Amino acid sequence: MATYLITGGCGFVGSHLADALLARGDAVVVLDNLSTGKRANLAPEVRVIEGDVADPDAVARAMAGCAGVFHLAGIASVAYCNEHWREGHLTNQTGTVTVFEAAARAGRVPVVYTSSAAVYGDAGTGAVDEARVPRPQTPYGVDKLGSELHGRIAMGVHGLPTVGLRPFNIYGPRQDPSSAYSGVISIFNSRLAQGLPVTVFGDGLQTRDFVFVADVVRFLLAAMARAPEVAGQVFNICTGRTTTLLALIDTLAALHGRQAVVQHAAPRVGDIRESLGDPARARDLLGVTAGVTLEDGLAALLRGM
Ligand code: UD2
Fold first, then answer.
1. Pocket of ligand 1 contains residue 185 by CB under 6 Å
2. How far is CA 153 from CA 156, 159, 226, in A?
3. Is 205 contained in some domain?
4. Which ipTM score applies to this complex?
5. pLDDT tens per residue, the chain (305 residues)?
6. How far apart are CA 220 and CA 106, in angstroms?
7. Which residue, 252, 243, 239, is CA-closest to 292?
8. CA spacing 20 to 30 A to 303: which of 108, 246, 258, 294?
9. Where is the NAD-dependent epimerase/dehydratase domain (predicted)?
């Protein structure tokens, strides 16, 4: 049994990871500023420290005695970070460097952290692999790429093993639908459940590689298990399958047994047109793939599992 720190552990992905760690017999400490996460997402045995990931004292305190750190805290919305440039930078990049520095000082505790597929920017048609030159087109993507660059030099300068993960679009139970900045599946699912119209920004033909949260947890655990061998590297978290927003709406509406009412609004600034990941590198080096199909994942979402 080991103890792991999850930053942002009260949130959507972090709380699923906490469940998986507890289920295999590990202990979990969470650092979360509760800006979007909720204590109620976690089992009672998880120790929660309320604090900010850009606060070095809070991070050092939370890390004491931990065998590894999953750094998931961040502002997940690209659109919010467009509108709150400095706030996004402080959390998404300074916060990551704060975690890296604390981990180095705490005895080179391995860190698995979430970067993002947003580092690629608009990569055009076809699946992007990790060798693609990153061209982020929003502050969010730039801060994630900056975090990766720090992660890559961490071993050489500080002897700190880090592994970066680039999730594509994550969905699943506990993704909060309540804000305009929430993940699109959580918003559409909640609106369809209430019989309300959905708003599509742009023509709805933009594509996304939607990956179910239980698969994401498998990638996180695999990255931690192999951190010594793959230190300094980055991996896509994706399915290798792509879906348009309009097709997504059709699938979701069928699961709800309803006809969707679709309204269109102007596209978002910096919105990526096509997003599809190549899962080969994670499969080959981490031994993990995302096996849950969109239909199965959406059905599980509706069941609340
Ligand atoms: C997602 C992640 C982001 C990053 C990125 C990687 C979320 C919230 N954001 O950004 O953290 O990892 O992927 O590329 O998971 N849309 C609508 N109507 C709505 C809401 C959204 O049409 O009510 C569109 C939106 O304009 C975009 C797509 O749906 O084309 C997905 O939007 P999103 O906010 O779920 O995620 P994205 O791809 O901007």
1. no
2. 5, 9, 18
3. no
4. 0.97
5. 999 999 999 999 999 999 999 999 999 999 999 999 999 999 999 999 999 999 999 999 999 999 999 999 999 999 999 999 999 999 999 999 999 999 999 999 999 999 999 999 988 889 999 999 999 999 999 999 999 999 999 999 999 999 999 999 999 999 999 888 889 999 999 999 999 999 999 999 999 999 999 999 999 999 999 999 999 999 999 999 999 999 999 999 999 999 999 999 999 988 999 999 999 999 999 999 999 999 999 999 999 86
6. 21
7. 239
8. 246
9. 5-238
Rg (CA), the chain: 18
Evaluate: CB of 201 within 6 angstroms of ligand 1.
yes
290, 295, 298, 302: CA torsion to nearest 10: -140
Q: Which string of DSSP letters, residue by residue, matches 85-125?
A: HHHHHIIIIIHHHHHHHHHHHTT---EEEE--GGGG-S--S
Ligand 1 center from residue 42 Cα (angstroms): 25
Two tokens at 203? 């023509």
CB atoms within 10 A of CB 283: 15
Q: Where are the alpha helices (DSSP H) in the chain?
A: 12-23, 56-63, 78-83, 85-89, 95-105, 139-158, 184-193, 213-225, 227-230, 245-256, 280-281, 294-303
Number of domains in the chain: 1
Residue 25 maps to a domain: yes
55 touches ligand 1 (CB under 6 Å):
no
Question: Which residue has its alpha carbon closest to ligand 1 atom 18?
Answer: 200
Instruction: Residue 143: name the closest of 153, 134, 131, 155 by CA.
Output: 134
For residue 303, being part of any structural domain is answered with: no
Token readout for 76 is 């997940």
Query: Is position 113 annotated as part of the catalytic site?
Result: no
In a domain, 81, yes or no: yes
- Structural domain of 76: 3-171+211-239+277-291
Rounded distance from Cα 81 to ligand 1 centre (Å)? 12
The length of the chain in residues reads 305
